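Hey, I was hoping to borrow your eyes for a little while. There's a protein on my desk that I can't quite get my head around. The fold is given in discrete form, as structure tokens running alongside the sequence. I'd be grateful if you could look everything over and explain what you see. Here's the protein in full, and shout if anything looks odd to you:
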Amino acid sequence: MSVFIPSQIVALDYQNKSLYCEVIDAIASRDLCWVRPIILVDKITEKTDYLTDKNDIYDLRFTSDLLWNIKDFRMVLDTEYIEFLVNLSDFEFDDEKLILAREKLRLFIKEIC
């Protein structure tokens, strides 16, 4: 088991989706990781070239933090994460966008559980 450090980017993968999060704290004694979701990527094609293929990218920066099993996360290389981050527009405090982001996060968690 690897121990994550604060501010590290990690991902939680399920089927064709990846939830990218920033580590707030790793609680190794309880096998938990406190993370702040940043983006959810739904990889539409099975073999994805992140620059040319279509992906649905959802901005989750203002959704709820999560406590999750540390073993379910994987470390993310900067090159993987940056590819998606550059596709985000500047965040606007729009109620519809916030509701969509919360719903996408909720559905992703529901799929995993």
Summary: The beta strands are 9-14, 17-27, 32-43, 55-59, 66-69, 73-75. Residues 69 and 76 are 17 Å apart (CA to CA). The first helix runs from residue 78 to 85.
